[in-house]
Design brief:
With 401 residues, the chain is α+β, with helices and mostly antiparallel strands. The protein contains 13 helices and ten strands. A five-stranded antiparallel β-sheet has the order 8-3-7-4-10. α5 runs antiparallel to α6 and α6 packs antiparallel against α7.
């Protein structure tokens, strides 16, 4: 039995909007490995939804989905806090894409919750909760949130609130309020033990791209990149389609900094492709197909800014040796040693930004050739998935440092 027709139809609707989805199992866990680190193409999602264990769909939060982050409200305290902070900031608390969750059963009582979706214009939101921890609010910037009309393990179905579907926000997903950033940045026991009590008295200052020196540098870098790529495409004569692809891919990898939107890049590339004559030659549909493909691929591989550090002298550079790994991978391990080798090797590759699916396939090849006896595929996949989780958490901690 595969996912119900309603799930398939909603998945197609959301993928047509450019969102990356991961199919879920009956326990809400994602069905595909590597979901924390990689976007999935519509073809991958469709194939996974044909799996007998697929019963629902989930939204991958953060940079994998254009900086859109699910905020999970599971307690009345969190909902009340949100209402109060929005009122103090002059924001409509309900003017966000919103899903009603069936809620878990506690002592026979079900308490429905909400998933609200915000645009992380600062690129700061991960899974860290900060002072939200005691309010029953979870951040899913490095996680996922189950989408309608998926079923809940305790019964019932997830549902969009009327007028609060993604399609109802034609001007874009509303930006994350400043008060939410402030609460996430605080320690759980900081100040009064919760969100800053004075925060409600302050008006939300609105978007702040350059709120510190690092953000100011990111903004300048990204805007310069947009200008440079537009100029490069505009003056291209031969290989105009490839130039468009490369420029869009490069800019999409910087989208998580929030210095420009997808629409802004689309307009810049369209102007450049009109200037160099490519749209007149091959048409707007061909242009949009190349742009969409490159943008999706780029957003799935976010790029950090180059370090501003002095270059070391050539004589001081030590090249890493591959000899230790050559010896380890040539082993014929058994017992627990099999899992240990796979775990360490997967972590080594993921730290170097190797695609999680490539890591999984390499692990399977090594397992079949060297492990005595080979691990079951489910056990191997669990090891790789755990390595992906650790790597995602380390990247998040590094970004927060």
């Amino acid at each position: 039995m595969t996912a119900a027709a309603a799930i398939l139809a909603e998945a197609e609707r959301l993928m047509a909007l450019g969102y990356s989805l991961v199919p879920t199992q009956a326990d809400k866990h994602p069905l595909l490995e590597g979901w924390r680190l990689q976007r999935f193409t519509p073809e991958q999602t469709r194939a996974a939804l044909q799996h007998p264990g697929a019963v629902g769909i989930a939204f991958q939060g953060g940079a994998l989905n254009h900086g859109i982050v699910p905020v999970d409200f599971d307690a009345e305290a969190g909902l009340s806090w949100w209402q109060q902070e929005c009122a103090a900031a002059g924001i409509d608390p309900d003017d966000f894409p919103t899903v009603q969750t069936p809620g878990k059963l506690h002592d026979g009582i079900r308490r429905p919750g909400l998933h609200r979706y915000v645009f992380d214009h600062r690129g700061e939101l991960g899974n860290r909760r900060g002072a939200l921890k005691g309010l029953g609010i979870d951040m899913r910037g490095k996680g996922c949130a189950v989408l309608p009309p998926s079923p809940h393990p305790d019964g019932g179905f997830y549902a969009w609130l009327p007028g609060r579907h993604f399609v109802d926000f034609s001007d874009g997903i509303p930006r994350c309020p400043d008060f939410l950033y402030r609460a996430v940045a605080k320690t759980p026991d900081g100040g009064s033990g919760g969100p800053d009590p004075s925060a409600g008295a302050r008006r939300d200052a609105g978007p702040r791209m350059a709120h510190d020196a690092s953000d100011a540098r990111a903004y300048r870098y990204c805007r310069a990149a947009l200008d440079n790529q537009r100029a490069a495409v505009a003056r291209t004569i031969a290989g105009r389609n490839q130039a468009l692809n490369d420029a869009t891919l490069s800019l999409a990898r910087l989208a998580h900094f929030g210095a420009f939107t997808e629409g802004e890049v689309l307009a810049a590339m369209a102007a450049a492709s009109t200037e160099n004559g490519w749209i007149a030659k091959d048409g707007r549909p061909a242009f949009e197909a190349t742009f969409a493909s490159a943008w999706t691929a780029g957003v799935a591989r976010p790029q950090e800014l180059p370090e501003e550090a002095p270059r070391p002298h050539a004589n001081s550079i030590r090249r890493p040796s591959i000899e230790p790994w050559s010896a380890i991978l040539a082993e014929r391990p058994s017992g627990r040693r099999r899992g240990a080798v796979l775990r360490d090797f997967a972590s080594y590759l993921l730290r170097r930004h190797v695609d999680p699916f490539a890591v999984l396939e390499l692990a399977r090849l090594w397992n079949a050739a060297q492990a005595v006896p080979p691990l079951a595929d489910a056990e191997l996949a669990a090891i790789i998935d755990a390595a992906c989780v650790r790597e995602a958490e380390q990247r998040e901690r590094g970004a927060a440092a």
